[in-house]
Amino acid sequence: MNTTTNAWKVSMNAQTITTGPHPHVGMWVTADGRIRQELLPTGRYEEARDGRERAYTGRYTVTGDHIDYYDDLGFTATGDVRDGVLYHEHLVLYREH
């Protein structure tokens, strides 16, 4: 993640191609709206729960449609995007439009 240009990088045959923000960047929300998770273009995330802003914060990495989360408190989690839906541990989140 290049934080100065907010771009992500893909390695291909020892070349690095810099493109725009990763397609998974943005706001993801549970169907009931209680949990909101924003994947920032800087490689950081912020998660709000039941109106508590920044309940969880940390960094993330993306490999294809798989997301690895590294929370600032020290724990880790994973997620996978399938058919436009983010499955993050026991949560199901949808893209906010």
From TrEMBL:
Q: Name one Pfam family in it.
A: Atu4866
Q: What is this protein called?
A: Ligand-binding protein with streptavidin-like fold
Superkingdom: Bacteria
